[in-house]
Design goal:
alpha/beta, two-stranded antiparallel ribbon, about 35% helix, about 130 residues, 7 strands
Length: about 130
C-alpha cells in the first residue's frame, strides 16, 4: 500500500478523479469529498447510475462511459463491491485506485497493482490533502 509520501505525490500528480458511488445528498461524505476536490482544482467526474448530474457535473453510470482519461478512481462503495470497480478502473487505464475510509479489498488491490496501478485503501483524499 501507499505510504504518506506516496499519497502526497498521488494527490499532486492527479488531475481527474472519478468518484464512484457519489451521492447527490449534500450531507453524504461522497458529496462533501467531491465538492472539496472540485474546490481544490481537481476535475471530478461523478459515477452513479442513479443520477444525471451531481455538483453541476455530468454523472456517468459506469467508469467505461467516461469520455476522458481518468487519473484516479475514488471508491465510495462497500468493500465487497470493489473488485468489479477495480476491473473497470484497469480497463479505462486509471493510474490510481483509491478506497475511502472503511473500504478495503485485498483482491482489488492486488489486481490493480498487478495492472500497474497505485492503490490506496482506507484513506480519504480530503483528509490527506496537504495542498
Amino acid at each position: 500500500m501507499s505510504t504518506d509520501q506516496e499519497i502526497q505525490q498521488i494527490l499532486k500528480d492527479t488531475k481527474t478523479i472519478a468518484v464512484v458511488g457519489i451521492s447527490h445528498k449534500a450531507h453524504r461524505a461522497s458529496y462533501q469529498v467531491a465538492k472539496f476536490l472540485i474546490e481544490k482544482g481537481y476535475t471530478v467526474i461523478p459515477v452513479n447510475p442513479k443520477y444525471e448530474e451531481v455538483l453541476g457535473q455530468v454523472c456517468y453510470a459506469k467508469l467505461e462511459d467516461i469520455p476522458v482519461a481518468v487519473d484516479m478512481v475514488d471508491c465510495f462503495r462497500r468493500s465487497e463491491e470493489i473488485v468489479p470497480i477495480a476491473e473497470s478502473a484497469i480497463r479505462i487505464g486509471a493510474k490510481v485506485l483509491w478506497m475511502q475510509l472503511g473500504v478495503e479489498s485485498d483482491d482489488a488491490a492486488e489486481m490493480a497493482q498487478s495492472a500497474g496501478m497505485q492503490v490506496v485503501m482506507n484513506r480519504c483524499p480530503k483528509i490527506d490533502y496537504r495542498g
